[in-house]
Amino acid sequence: MHDVYNFVSGPLVWVSFIIFFGGCLYRLISMAVLAKKKDVFVYEYMSFKYGLRSIFHWIIPFGTVKWRKNPILTIVTFTFHICLILVPIFLCAHVILWKESWDIGWWYFSDTTADILTGIVIACCVFFLIRRIVLPEVKYLTSVSDYVILAMVAAPFITGFWTYHQWPGCKITGIVHIIAGEIMLAAIPFTRLIHMVYFPFTRGYMGSEFGAVRNAKDW
Amino acid sequence: MGKRTLIIYVVITLFVCIFAVMSGYSQEDVTTVEDSAFEEKMRPTVQFLHDEHNEAAGLEECDVCHHVYKDGEKIEDESSEETECSECHTLNKGDNPLSLVKVYHLQCKGCHQKEKAGPIMCSECHPR
Q1: In chain A, domain spans
Q2: pLDDT tens-digit series, residues A101-125
Q3: Which ranges of chain B does DSSP label H, i.e. alpha helix?
Q4: Do B122 and A93 count as a contact with CB atoms less than 8 A apart?
Q5: What is the pTM of this model?
Q6: I want to staple B68 with a disulfide (CB 3.0 to 4.6 A). Which of A36, A112, A203, B78 is the partner?
């Protein structure tokens, strides 16, 4: 157990962070190069003003027509993304690990708050799963990879929740939790989770084309 | 032996027995890790059987854990049994207790990781 713990909480963390940052940088650069080669108009039409206008509207709940048309999805997806980012960063146990390793620390949630927010993330994942199965228009567009990605994102939260509550087998789930987090982090650059770093550009470009070319909003 | 003498003998023997038993208990075993600097505890007090631990770990010297540092150098043959960790690893009132948490974790978990023995995961020391 000691060897396994030392390995997954040591070298594997380095590997996952290097893949995450290196991979994101690689994807951004290679996309920029590809666009320059194949679709140079992206650079022509990219507008700072309309790009930011679009990002601003889409980053605000109910800030666009699309968000207002699907109020439940809007609430769930915003809650999900906010908790997804905040919980791992401001979880007390994680902050303690940063403190132990690097002697850096920051504000953290109380355990109860983090517990509730984790429950919310898991509940949102269940919502997304049901949505994929039930709604015909979503089901039509769903492939196996969508389920895999959803499971990959849900896994660190489910195992973390299990470990925190010290339910049976929590030592194993603790190890699985660490590995699941590392897999998710490393998978971001190479799956559709890349929308995390692509979104300012994709949204920005759509906003630019609608605003500067079609003289319209992007709804 | 007269009845009186017998009673005196019995009383003295009884006192000696009581004294022996009392003195055996007066040196209380250390069973937890406590530090008065932790005002609000997020987790219950950590259970720690001092003597059993040292026997299992084969620790003879006190200063392995109860160390004394001066100018960043460990002073050999000096130990700090009667001192709370927080007396040196100070924590100002109202401070974020992370720095003290860190020294406790490195002291216990750090050694366990190095020696590949003893608890290292959260739940092993901090049961709910």
Answers
A1: 2-213
A2: 999 989 999 999 999 999 999 999 9
A3: 3-26, 50-57, 85-88, 98-105, 111-115, 122-125
A4: yes
A5: 0.86
A6: B78
